[in-house]
Amino acid sequence: MDARLLDILVCPICKANLEYRRTQSELLCKPCRLAFPIRDGIPIMLEEEARQFSSDEL
Domain tally for the chain? Predict the structure, then answer.
């Protein structure tokens, strides 16, 4: 992921900053508890594509 892109991407639902998880290829929104996938280097910022994660994963 390009660091400049990470600086401007926010959660499409709540507009919170996202945390990049390189090992899972995901962008996490902690307030919404959603993980947005990154496929072939492209973040998929659609709510229906995101998965819910538990507080244990933080």
Answer: 1
pLDDT band at 55 (very low <50, low <70, confident <90, very high): confident
- In the chain, the N- to C-terminal Cα span, in Å, equals 20
Residue (of 40, 54, 44) closest to 18 by Cα position: 44
Could you list the residue range(s) of the whole structural domain that residue 13 is in? Answer: 3-57
Which CATH number covers residue 35? 2.20.25.10
Coil vs helix vs strand at 52: strand
Q: Over the stretch 1-38, which tens digit does the pLDDT of each residue have?
A: 788 988 999 999 999 999 999 999 999 999 999 999 99
Q: What is the DSSP letter of 10?
A: B
